[in-house]
Design brief:
Helix content: under 10%
Strand content: over 45%
Low-confidence stretches: 1-15
Shape: elongated
Oligomer: single chain
Order of helices and strands: HHHEEEEEEEEEEE
Strand order of the largest sheet: 1-3-4-5-6-7-8-9-10-11
Number of strands: 11
Distance between the termini: 32 Å
CATH topology: Lipocalin
């Protein structure tokens, strides 16, 4: 009896090492990961009014001295609904705002280079949710390739204000300029996921997503790429780390006023992975 118990315990303990990637995929129906991106940020905001020719360009990091390094949270879920079909979603939110008192700050207004002595403020709040259907069109013992199509849904709340003394062509005037906007839009998304198992516990995961399509008075382009490795500590739990790159550009026009938001963040990612 003692020998049999020992054999059973040994088999259970080594079960994670004996599972191929294909077996892991078939064994689990739901996967959830949550973590952070430790990234370097570069974000800009541009305001253009066609009726008055007003234009304002704000470099969020360069002019407002916002920190270049940022921590961005991320949540991801994958649900297997058929043997080869999956429903997946990912969510992230960004909060970037700053205010700075400036002296002779160069700003473009109405096509002219204007000097501002006063206060500059800008805000960029961005939430995005990706919902997609993924199909495993290649699945072997050690490799898995998913093609996916869905929607990139985002919500933007942004604005700027400039207040103080403006000097244009040597002439000074005191005043305030500013605007703000918010909207929600959805764009089609396509992407591919490539997984390859290097060892019984180590899995390489690559993700590439692409979004582009003008919809009404809004245009958006987004590119997302991730290269990482997932290490399975247990059959239901693992840790994922790697590199991530995200680029987003949104142009929104309403009543002759165009808002352009552009940002990219790239750096390290660290996530906890759960499978059920």
């Amino acid at each position: 009896m003692t020998g049999a118990a020992t054999t059973t315990a040994t088999a259970t303990a080594t079960e994670p090492d004996s599972m191929s990637l294909s077996e892991r995929v078939k064994d689990k129906r739901l996967a959830i990961s949550a973590g952070v991106f430790l990234v370097r940020f570069d974000s800009t905001y541009k305001y253009s009014d066609a009726s008055s020719s007003d234009q304002v360009f704000v470099d969020m990091e360069g002019q407002l001295d916002l920190p270049i390094s940022e921590v961005v949270g991320n949540f991801y879920a994958l649900w297997r609904i058929t043997d080869h079909g999956y429903v997946a979603g990912t969510y992230s939110r960004l909060r970037r705002s700053g205010e700075r008192r400036v002296v002779q700050e160069p700003i473009v207004i109405e096509g002219d280079l204007v000097s501002l002595d006063g206060v500059m403020f800008a805000r960029l709040d961005y939430d995005f949710l990706d919902l997609n259907y993924a199909y495993a069109f290649h699945r072997k013992e050690q490799s898995l390739v998913l093609g996916k199509a869905g929607f990139h849904i985002f919500s933007i709340d942004a604005g700027f204000s400039l207040e103080g003394e403006f000097v244009v062509n040597g002439e000074a005037e005191i005043g305030k300029k500013g605007d703000e906007f918010d909207f929600v839009a959805a764009f089609p998304l396509i992407g591919v996921v490539l997984n390859y198992q290097l060892g019984r516990r180590l899995i390489v995961e690559n993700v590439v997503d692409f979004v582009y399509l003008p919809v009404g008075n809004t245009q958006a382009i987004a590119v997302r790429a991730q290269l990482g490795c997932r290490y399975m500590i247990a059959p239901w739990f693992g840790l994922k780390a790697g590199l991530s790159y995200n680029f987003e550009r949104v142009e929104y026009t309403e009543d002759s006023v165009t808002h352009e938001v552009e940002f990219d963040f790239s750096g390290l990612m660290a996530k906890a992975y759960f499978a059920f």
